[in-house]
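cache lookup: miss for this entity combination. No prior model stored, computing from scratch. Input as submitted by user K.M.:
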Amino acid sequence: MTLALPAGPTPAPRRQIFVGTALACVAGTMLIGGQLAIWALIRDRAVEAGERFPAKFEIPEVASNVMLMTLYALCLFAQWTVWSAKRGDRMHVGLSLGIVGLMGVAFVNAQAYVYHRMEMPIADGGYPGMFYAITGTMLALVIIGLVFTAITAFRALGGRSGELELVASHALYWYFVAAAFSGVWFLVYVTK
Amino acid sequence: MTTIESSPDAVGAARGESAIGSFPVALAAWLTSTDHKRIGRMFLGGSFVGLAATAALGLVLGIERVDGGDVLIDSGAIPQLFQLYRFGLVSATLIPLGIGLSIAVVPLQLGARSLAFPRLALAGFYGWLAGLVLLVVGLANNGGIGGGDADMVDLFLAGHVLMAIGLIAAAVSIATSVLTTRAPGMSMRRVPLFSWSALITAIGVLLSLPVLVGALVFLFVDHRNARVVFGGNVGIGDWIGWAFTQPATYVFALPAVGVAAELLPVTFGRRQVMRGVVYTGLALVGVAALSAVTQQNVHSLPWSGSGLDTDELGTKFDDFVPFALFNLLPVLGVLIVMAIGALTAKGARPSITSPFLFSFLGVGMILVGMLGGVLYPIDDLGLQGTVFEEGVLVYVVYGTVLSVMGGVVYWAPKLWGRAFPDKPVMGLAGLGLIATVLASLPYYAAGFADQPAASPTYEYGGPAELWNALVLLGHALMLLTVLAFAGLGAKALRRDDRTGDDPWDAQTVEWTTTSPAPFDNYAEVPVISSAEPALDRKASEQPS
């Protein structure tokens, strides 16, 4: 028999998924931030050496701009999911999550289009490898977001449409992805 | 007064494992367990195996250094072995030791019934282990930094990525636990000091290791294809070396300081004074994470011409600020923790126990390492590129090992239900201290004599063979310490008598549950009304 402290009431939920997602977003920010820092350093060295960066490849800017707008719009729909879940509106939760998924796929499609248009062999000098590495990492983050959307949809449509914490965490993740891509867009696609 | 009986979960868990009784099923239950105590113990077990292997490697390299190379191993393999030694010290020992102890203990300290995201932590363990295996395979087959086999260099990089992702996953789990699973009444100001250090470490890992992953992705893609931008196989060290040297390693050593901070008030039987200042001290050590964020190996401090020449004052200030931020603040943090500990102890009669001795000696070693870390970046001392840095690293890592061993001894009743025998463990702490000093202090002297780092050859007229032999002996003694520690643990486990629920007369909430703690830690979620709930309970039970 053990003498223990008096038992308390069941502790209130402390938004474990939300906090965990926020911490994962911090890690993701450091990942992309670190890569952007290396990108900026290498670019700076190339420019100081009088080289053009990239030397011979052209980035389709329309597609990259559309990718950025897609992610911003996606955040709006992710927030719509939160709004609908707050009201217990299952139909709108499903609809908004569907659109989020669709826009995520559209982002992946646009990235594939960029790769296709650039026709850039990965072993052709230093720039292609760096470009594929940083945009590939970004793509991986978007794919993780799509998996997150799928899980949220399964749970929300499986009867947990009022589970606010999960949909809020889902929205938070997409906000992070949009912010991360803003940095990539500015440094890789605009400043080059 | 509440009587804790086994909860339905615990009964179910116990029934599921013991009723079957076959070894493979029991093993599978262990390997897939979501019990944080098991996950933590797997991390700790893996780290101690890594430590033993690294100490053995240090022994082999010591023989090479004493005899000038080509004694036991081919000179072509020497660079890989030196890398394996460094990665063994940091990736196989230092980081997982702190994370393992945190996973095993933090939920208990928080009054929580489980770890947040236990499957994530378990996946983190396997990610770390698999990454470590890939790294070792890569290095063993001529991969690694400067490796001649391109595929193995790629494997080495991929292993690093996997290992770092695993550790990040475990860190998310630990930090989320501290932030969200505390028992009712446990505000952040009442969080036990070890759990606080675990939180700071987890945040440090979350800030630093993703930066490493980002760099590794660049390196992997570049090395696999063009090998133009990052210096090919030789340049890898320039881009990732910061993660495996000081001051980045201080963040990973922080749980060791947390163990000592936790044990000081217990040893002196007093309530911790100025808890907020101790929290601040521990957090100051965590500032070293910023050195990782900036991806710098060394923030050099040029000393030449440092008279107060106003023309150069701005430049000197620019040099001094990052140096002070990353090298002096962590030292200040440890000193604050120790100073407040001394204030807590003032006038009290200590009850010296083996966990305290281990952790106190361990933190002392870490502090000596940190002080060496202050000297290392000063350009005019000419220590960069010498074995001095290795001495600093060994001080920090072996100091952490000692302190974590103290933590394992301290929390063993909650994890295994058995206590380590006190006197032999005290002797072991002394042996560990000698091992640490011998394995590192000679290299402080050798650094000033310009003995080159990561090289078995060294031309010097002085007693170089003597200090290399002392280092060799130090690693041998550390290997002996680890094996003896494992032996004592195994002996304690075989004993029939279970230890009491509060054998150390401790203060934090985990000592109010049974030893060993049940599957879900607490049958009833406890209510916390101070930072020392176990002490409160004991005080309330004493007749007035």
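stored under new cache key. DSSP finds 17 helices and one strand in chain B.
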